[in-house]
Amino acid sequence: MVRAGRGSYLIEEFLKEDIVAIGWNDIGPLEEGTTLNTIKEKLSEAYPDDSDNRVRMSAGQLFRMFKKFKVGDKVVTYDSDSRVYYLGEITSGYKYSEKLSYRHYRTVEWIEVPMSRDALSVGSKNILGAVLTIFEVPLKVWKELIKDHPKYMSKEDLAIAGDEANKMIEDEGLEEDVRPIIVEYEKEHELDDIKEDVISRSNEFIKDLIVKLEWDELEKLVAGILQAMGYKARLTGRGPDLGSDIIASLDGLEMTEPIIKVEVKHKIKSKDKIGAPDIRSFVGGLRNTTKGIYVSSTGFSKDAKMEAERANFQITLVDLDRLVELLIDYYETLDSESRALVPLKRIYWPV
Questions:
Q1: Alpha-carbon distance 105 to 248, whole Å?
Q2: What's the CA gap between 282 and 246, in Å, rounded?
Q3: pLDDT tens for residues 3-48?
Q4: Which of 8, 30, 246, 335 could form a disulfide with 34 if both were Cys (CB 3.0 to 4.6 A apart)?
Q5: Partners of 233 in the beta sheet?
Q6: How far, in Å, are 203, 236, 240, 294, 340 from residue 265 at the CA level?
Q7: Are strands 290-296 and 315-318 parallel, antiparallel or unpaired?
Q8: What b/e string do you get for 14-24 counting C-beta neighbours within 10 Å, with b at 16 or more?
Q9: Vertex 143 angle, CA 142 and 146, to 5°
């Protein structure tokens, strides 16, 4: 697994450029013969505020990209907006380019059709939700990822992968899918990093609940969050409000600014991101006294984000990650009907 940056913000670059890449750009390119200790020294010099443990972890990630990856290795990356995994195969040695957002990279041949997170078991979802930039995907999970891609591997290869996965489980006595990743975290991570990992996995499971909602239930949830934030929100019933699904204002009568029009798009079957034409259509329905919020359960394309930034009206884009943040922030003041749509339980962490 090679993550496409926090919140998968580099997924389009990964797919367009046919790469996987990681950051720590300030250390520059890694020359042939560079050792793990040399990488640690470069990181300590470039990032003096990082703890020794974090330097050790970062060096391990870079060393994997630099030395451990091999041509022909299988690779996975995740699009958290569309909630799909892209599978591919590494096709080059280590490279470095200042033209990329993350400069340390390998080229990849991606499979065009991704694998939906919804099709995976809970155990596999948990393993793939680890917050590490790079980690090894257990063969059992890989087998689950490729089962809907019959053209990806031959029947013989699939059989070998299955045999190797079963042998690994028997040899190591693994009883739970999550054990390999948990062991790695106990050895390498500080408490704050483990907390970040738990939060990241929890957020993904909350997104699993949200995407299972019907379109009208998602609209009710968004309206409930706005009300918890102090607005009076009403569902328009797809009436004459120029396409907006929710109208929110401070007084409930739309006499006091700001007046907010909200569009909620929930593509249950399609995983397509919202594009620039969708944003232009939404902006066309706004007026000088209104602001806009566009909520999408499948995220927004790069062009859509640029379209929102240059719009004449103030537009806020809310993808699933942002929606989960808002839900958690205002869950305590959420009405009971909205809570019932996404039932959550509070847990505590030592400080």
A1: 45
A2: 13
A3: 998 888 899 999 999 999 999 999 999 998 899 999 999 999 999 9
A4: 30
A5: 248
A6: 20, 14, 18, 8, 21
A7: parallel
A8: bbebebbbbbb
A9: 85
